[in-house]
Design a protein that fits this description.
Radius of gyration: 18 Å
Distance between the termini: 10 Å
Largest sheet: 7 strands, mixed
Number of strands: 7
Order of helices and strands: HHHHHHEHEHEHEHEHEHE
Shape: globular
Number of helices: 12
Strand order of the largest sheet: 1-7-6-5-2-3-4
Helix content: 40-55%
């Protein structure tokens, strides 16, 4: 998926939110934002949105002398989600279709995105609970389920911290359903925005259910050319793949394959228009649906 002009505006707004978080002086904010605008002006057309994010966040980290801009929020969201784990698992196991309900919760957790949304952790989790019971606007889950039951391994490409806990619950339900399936969860090696890192995965204990893979990426989504050889190999060799969130959709939308499924909430107007759904739609869709112009 290629970026359009609105993507530049979106990233400028993200930069402003970060400056408001860390900088008190309006004069300093002005000067740093001028630098960011200059950095963005050097980018060529035809990039993916995640390429813009990679440049901008790297620059902001340098200007602010901070290597992890959302470390506090990530820990809070991980802890908050962990506190809900047992309750959600009980509700899911009591449902008529635990696998489907776990998938819905995993996608609902995609609301936990401090880069895309404003609001406190508590407010975001309230929204997760509200959206959990809403149906998918695009629902290819039965197709996914049919393929899953014939798969020996699954690659789960994670998105954000916090929602990673709900992804872990989905993965646990998959393992309880299919005891012999081997699951790999791909996580960022270095922090960018609130994307889930290897450290986040270890913190919540996801290795109990899946093997952690370090993508070696510092992009807000999956970029195959920049990723580790191990991740690329698994991406092309896995029987079935789930790619969570908007960043992974942006990075992998050109991959039109039978075994690749995107699971996300379309929080962005650009992505929603690209897919052809209303903003904030809940999606579990096969990548074959995406056709590049």
């Amino acid at each position: 998926m290629k970026a359009i002009s609105k993507c530049l505006t979106c990233h400028v707004n993200q930069a402003q939110r970060i400056l408001d978080k860390f900088v008190i002086s309006e004069h300093e904010k002005w000067n740093i934002l001028k630098k960011v605008l200059n950095d963005l002006s050097q980018l060529n057309y035809n990039l993916k949105p995640i390429d813009i994010a990679e440049v901008m966040y790297e620059k902001l980290e340098n200007y602010l002398n901070k290597s992890d801009l959302y470390s506090e929020e990530k820990k809070k969201s991980n802890d908050a989600a962990l506190s809900l784990y047992k309750d959600f698992k009980s509700r899911i196991l009591d449902s008529s279709d635990p696998l489907y309900e776990a998938a819905k919760l995993s996608v609902a957790g995609n609301l936990i995105d401090f880069g895309a949304k404003k609001g406190s952790t508590e407010e975001l989790f309230k929204q997760v609970i509200e959206i959990w019971n809403q149906p998918f606007s695009i629902d290819d889950f039965e197709e996914f389920k049919k393929l899953l039951f014939s798969s020996k391994n699954l690659l789960f490409i994670a998105d954000n911290a916090g929602e990673l806990v709900f992804d872990m619950l989905f993965i646990e339900i998959i393992k309880e359903t299919l005891h012999d399936i081997e699951i790999f969860v791909a996580l960022k090696g270095k922090p960018i925005i609130n994307d889930a890192t290897v450290d986040d995965g270890k913190y919540i204990g996801i290795e109990k259910f899946a093997t952690i893979i370090d993508t070696k990426l510092k992009t807000a989504g999956a970029s195959l050319p920049k990723s580790s050889e191990e991740f690329r190999r698994l991406f092309y060799d896995s029987d079935i793949i789930i790619a969570k969130g908007q960043g992974n959709f942006e990075g992998l939308s050109e991959e039109s394959r039978d075994n690749l499924f995107f699971a996300l909430v379309s929080k962005c107007e650009v992505i929603s228009d690209f897919i052809g759904v209303e903003k904030n739609s809940k999606l579990f869709m096969n990548s074959k649906r995406i056709r590049q112009e």
